[in-house]
Write a structure and sequence with these properties.
The protein has 2 domains: 113 residues, Aspartate Aminotransferase, domain 1; 222 residues, Type I PLP-dependent aspartate aminotransferase-like (Major domain) (Aspartate Aminotransferase, domain 2). A hairpin with a 7-residue loop joins strand 9 and strand 10. The model has no long low-confidence stretch (mean pLDDT 97). The chain is built from 14 helices and 13 strands. The strands form 3 sheets. Strands 2-8-7-6-5-3-4 form a 7-stranded mixed beta sheet, with helices on both faces. The radius of gyration is 20 Å and the shape is globular. It has 379 residues and is an alpha/beta fold. Helix 3 packs parallel to helix 10. The structure holds 4'-deoxy-4'-aminopyridoxal-5'-phosphate and glutamine.
Length: 379
Amino acid sequence: MIKSKLPHVSTTIFSVMSQLAQKNNAINLAQGFPDFNTDSELINRLNYYSTQNYNQYAPMFGVEKLRILLSEKYSKLYDSDYDFQNEINITSGASQAIFNVISTLVYPNDEVIIFEPAYDLYQPTVELFGGKVIPIQLKYPEYSIDFEELKQKITDKTKLIIINNPNNPSGRILSEEDLKQFEKIISETNAYILADEVYEHITFDGKQHQSFAKLKTLKDRVFIVGSFGKLFHITGWKIGYILAEKELMKEFRKCHQFNTFSTHTPSQYAIADYMENPDHYLYLNDFFQEKRNLFIDGLASTYFDILPCEGTYFMSANYSKISNLSDDEFAKELTIKHKVATIPFSAFYQDKTDHKVIRFCFAKKDETLEQALEKLTKL
Ligand code: PMP
Ligand code: GLN
């Protein structure tokens, strides 16, 4: 028997709910992935590069053109200065970048602050490297940050603070004022920041994404992570990236080279070509805002209490007027009996906090959303 390094961890909720949806022939609004295809222009570029013999190892740092385009994008959008040679790396999804940052930084007994509800990858990864997770709960139902609590929880042992903005699963985004608060508090500590910004181009109602890339004073302590999966509707390609100041990147690359070495080659070339046109990612806000509105409007006549959704392609709702079941049981019942799969929020809390809230993914064809709404309005 192997002595488990993660004795309390079971299969991720995303696989559990996707499998349950499949088994019960339910509409899958659980795991976050689009059910529509990506642009054929991007597929054609991938086809081109794989038929033109771009099938061997990519450079360890990632394809140069892609890194240059990322450097330009960050400079244009956030007035930041990341050198494509020494400060940008392509990764095998944002997941690998996050895992690698944690492996680069965390020693046994280091403390890592996370905000809950939190994406489920953070905690087990910190624990794999002997770190201790210090959770801070976002204040329900606004999911706002208690900066006083953050100040109190930062100690001499705090190695890393992980901030996911726009936030999965709550759909909340940081304001300019929040970013300033972070800057002020963190500048008085020695902590590093892992800014998981995979939904950076999905913010609504004209609100701007507040990237940690804007904070020049903290540049030597910040790792910024992104994902092309979210940007171009290609979650299955698993291509992400990381930006970090060059001394940080030097250490990141020491781990990265032995973790995976490099990332799928033809996809990187295809994405680079496609990224030359910024409309391909700058239109995302409007595209998803329409889907969000369609779904929220449809839910308005139900007994669900809809919680605010400022960004990401997830929205959440409280179901306590419909059922007394725990969120886990409710999500299962909804899948099995009513044929709509969602994610229970308790999966994003270490102590399984249950406010009777479930998460819906609205990155789906309008017809899928309409079919789901038809079922949900019967509840
Ligand atoms: N961070 C967050 C907040 C996510 O929702 C996801 C899931 N897509 C990831 C990281 C991982 O992204 P990728 O699929 O590129 O590994
Ligand atoms: N990020 C996706 C979500 O939140 C899931 C990714 C995964 O299944 N690992 O649903």
